[in-house]
Design a protein that fits this description.
By secondary structure, the protein is mainly beta. The chain has helices at 10-13, 147-150, 344-350; strands spanning 43-56, 68-82, 86-97, 102-116, 120-127, 163-172, 175-182, 198-200, 205-207, 229-238, 241-251, 257-259, 269-271, 274-286, 289-299, 315-327, 330-341, 361-373, 378-387, 392-404, 407-418, 433-441.
């Protein structure tokens, strides 16, 4: 399953088990909490996969010199040691990247989990974190994302980037509290022009690796503890209804602020503005399916008046979704997403590029269709984003086939369209690609 976060079981809500990692469309990795004797002895597990990916562009790009968005060979190693009250986990990748012509090492998880009875647990180290109710839409989830991976055909799990964090969980009956502290701010792995092209309002055009302005190098906050981020979630259930409240204090996860203005001697530089987020969500069964509603207030507290053009304005973000099985092994999911920008008149009056600002109300609709066939070995999937006000679209068709138990192939596409170059998906149209992945798991 490749939704942003799957429905948590009552045991997960009560903190009795850890949430599973459901980001990979054919991840055979399973955790063990101990051995058959009751978990008093250490249990060890080894797994991983080898995977190849190729993703050529299918449209001519004037901004990017490379005809491929991805050409890579990847090796993943999963290691885990579990005990009755503790466990250690490692998930690491090494891959040869033909686009960048180099070898990368990416440690996605190197963490230790400790349980203190049924009411307290802690995991610390490098790890991938997620919460919220959206499917590929994130409101209260301010953990780092990797949007390059999302648009080039890598497995869905790679949309979530790791961070060096400490998560502490407290449970009292059916109420849980998660506190996550990331001492050093970990931003999104954003589109910087090196691999994928994007619209630059400074030049008024789409730029990529042909431009001397790329890759974009933002100014990061100082690596001090006071510049870390704090996330919180209070959650519980009332019968079949799941409820949660969220809080965040840190920075906008993408460099959408500017520094260095007005200084004619130095060009402006992208940076990260301070941000606090407060939100809530509810998820409940309805009509044979699940309905979810989520909202979040983005408090850009360095510019609450909305008059500083170098700092993003505060926003309200809302989401309503519904998913159900229409008939056996055919799943449908619908979502409506809204972004409302506060102090919009002040934003347009003071903006450095008012013609390129998004609308006061930005609407987004999504549709997911999934069909399982051939004894569940064949999955047909379609995910579509469409903005009725910006008139841009992103379509993700995908076919996954498990050839034999350890071997699977994925064929898909990332199709981006837009009327205007400066809209979210319209700026990515020159990155439209098809891709194929072959994975052998062990």
């Amino acid at each position: 399953m490749d939704a942003a976060e799957t429905s948590e079981t009552p045991e997960e809500l009560a903190g009795e088990v850890e949430p599973s990692d459901d980001w990979d469309e054919f991840d055979e990795w399973e955790e063990e909490e101990g051995d058959a004797s009751g978990g008093k002895a250490w249990a060890f597990q080894l797994g991983g996969f080898v995977e190849g990916l190729v993703a050529p562009r299918v449209v001519r790009s004037s901004a990017s010199a490379n005809e491929f968005t991805a050409v890579e060979a990847r090796f993943r190693l999963n290691l885990e040691a579990t005990h009755e009250i503790a466990s250690a986990r490692f998930r690491g990748d090494v891959y040869a990247d033909g686009v960048d012509s180099r070898v990368w090492f990416d440690i996605r998880d190197a963490s230790i989990f400790v349980r203190g009875g049924n009411w307290f647990s802690m995991r610390f180290g490098r790890q991938v974190l997620t919460w919220g109710t959206g499917d590929f839409l994130f409101l209260n989830d301010l953990f780092p994302k990797d949007f390059n991976s999302f648009f080039i055909g890598r497995a869905d799990e790679y949309l979530k980037a790791p961070s060096n964090s400490i998560i502490t969980t407290f449970n009292i009956r059916k109420v849980g509290l998660d506190l996550v502290w990331t001492p050093i701010f970990e931003p999104d792995r954003f589109i910087n022009g090196q691999r994928l092209s994007f619209f630059n309002p400074l030049t008024g055009e789409i730029i990529g690796d042909r431009s001397p302005l790329t890759p974009i190098q933002p100014l990061f906050p100082d690596k001090r503890l006071r510049n870390g981020t704090l996330h919180g979630r209070l959650y519980g259930s009332a019968g079949p209804v799941e409820l949660a409240a969220y809080g965040y204090v840190g920075y906008w996860p993408q460099p959408i602020a500017l520094t260095g203005l007005p200084d004619p001697a130095n060009p402006p530089q992208l940076t990260y503005a301070r941000l606090a987020v407060y939100g809530a969500s509810v998820r409940a069964p309805l009509g044979g399916g699940l309905i979810n509603v989520e909202g979040a207030f983005y408090d850009s507290f360095e510019d609450r008046d909305g008059t500083d053009p170098t700092i993003p304005n505060s926003q309200f973000r809302g989401l309503a979704g519904y998913e159900r099985e229409l008939f056996p092994k055919f799943q449908m999911g619908l979502q409506y997403y809204l972004e409302y920008t506060f102090k919009y008149d002040e934003l347009i009056t003071n903006s450095l590029w008012p013609d390129y600002e998004q609308h006061e109300f930005r609407h987004l609709l999504t549709l997911r269709l999934t069909q399982l066939l051939v004894m569940d070995n064949l999955e047909l999937s379609l995910f579509t984003f469409f903005s009725p006000d910006e008139l841009d679209t992103y379509i993700r068709p995908r076919i996954t086939y498990k050839i034999i138990e350890p071997l699977a192939v994925v064929i898909g596409a990332n199709l981006m369209f837009g009327r205007d170059d400066y809209t979210f998906f319209g700026q990515l149209k020159e990155n439209t690609n098809v891709y194929a992945r072959l994975r052998y798991s062990f």
